[in-house]
Amino acid sequence: MGQVNIEASPLPPRETRRDDPLISLVIPCFAESDTVELFVSATYASLPGQRLEFVFVNDGSPDDTLAKLLALSIRDPHVVIVDLSRNFGKEVAMTAGIDVASGDVVVPMDADLQDPPEVILKFLKRWREGYDVVFGIRSDRHSDTRGKRVTAGLFYRFFNNLAQTQIPPNVGDFRLMDRVVVDAVKKLPERTRFMKGIFAWVGFPSVGVEYVRAERSAGTTKFSYWQLWNFALEGVVSFSTVPLRIWTYAGMSVALASVVFALVIVVRTLVFGRDVPGYASTMTAILFLGGIQLISLGVIGEYLSRLFLESKQRPLYLLRGIYREGKHDERAEKSQ
Ligand code: UDP
Ligand code: MG
């Protein structure tokens, strides 16, 4: 039984931010053996005097990323390695890192230094003002190709028109989240992890900070256009049911049009007599309706397949180990 404080006000005052928060950087790594060492040294240089925890998630890298990370962790006790059993993709890797991160604030970052570490100081400033989420807005996307900029712009427009959850354009995963937000994100158990959407869905007082996204420090991008297309599809289907509903309206419009067309035929036959029905118009109607039906089946299939994945209740990821100072951290492994 705790002490009863009779002076406690009914509304607890907003908790003041601590001066020296532990900052957990969550870094998903897939084949990043050229970048991880650079990442740590550049981050220390950009954030002097901050308390840092590096949570590297090895997302089934085929190269020697894990060996590089283990060597780093022997030298630096602030390095934690979450080693996944295989490649699960960036979104799931990020989730695994967020699950392990112990900081007062958590910042997901790319390993290639495209998210400049010094921007975190600006994030912290806004966080101290009371915002629970401070997200980075790319002020220009010069480091991206033209094609990627155009398709990204189209995606944000499409997504925000369809989904209830609004994601601000040109905002990636690079953001600072307070512990309360992290705990909220951890409560979302869904298997289709579209993190941008999940981060937006949880809400909390948020503010954006503009930054210039750097070029990749070393190595190459891991995403092709085909993967980005699938990722966009994943995002829309996870956060909107509008694509399912469209077909009700499409069906109603086609049915209405066909009634009108039938009337036209009846009137025309009565007025002008019977004529030979057109082969072309029949084919067009059949092909058009067949196409519409296949598309709608495909859309239903997208949702059904996700329902199927969710219903299997498989764990989101499997751990091979969590390492600190070059050794298994058994306590952390057991608590996962
Ligand atoms: N990544 C990952 N698993 C994957 C693909 C990528 O953990 O299956 C990581 C990658 O190591 C990097 C981040 O996700 O830290 C962003 O990847 P990348 O820089 O290739 O993407 P881009 O910046 O080109 O969009
Ligand atoms: Mg990158």
Structure report:
There is one protein chain. The protein has two domains: 22-239 and 317-335, Spore Coat Polysaccharide Biosynthesis Protein SpsA, Chain A (Alpha-Beta Complex), CATH 3.90.550; 242-312. A nine-stranded mixed beta sheet has the order 7-5-6-4-1-2-3-8-9, with helices on both faces. Strand 1, helix 1 and strand 2 (51-58) form a beta-alpha-beta unit. It is elongated, with a radius of gyration of 26 Å. The longest helix is centred in the last third of the chain and has 33 residues, at 279-311. Helix 9 packs antiparallel against helix 10 (279-311). Residues 1-9 have low confidence and may be disordered. The protein has eleven helices and nine strands. With 336 residues, it is of the alpha/beta class. Bound molecules: uridine-5'-diphosphate and magnesium ion. Residues 28-30, 32, 59, 87, 89-90, 93, 110-112, 114, 216, 221-223 line the site of uridine-5'-diphosphate.
Q: Supply the CATH superfamily name of the largest domain.
A: Spore Coat Polysaccharide Biosynthesis Protein SpsA, Chain A
User: What's the end-to-end separation, in Å?
Assistant: 30 Å
Assembly state: single chain
User: What is the spatial order of strands in the main beta sheet?
Assistant: 7-5-6-4-1-2-3-8-9
Q: What fraction of residues sit in β-strands?
A: 15-25%
Low-confidence stretches: 1-9
Helix content: 40-55%
Major sheet:
9 strands, mixed
User: What is the number of helices?
Assistant: 11
What general form does the structure show?
A: elongated
User: What CATH architecture label of the largest domain applies?
Assistant: Alpha-Beta Complex
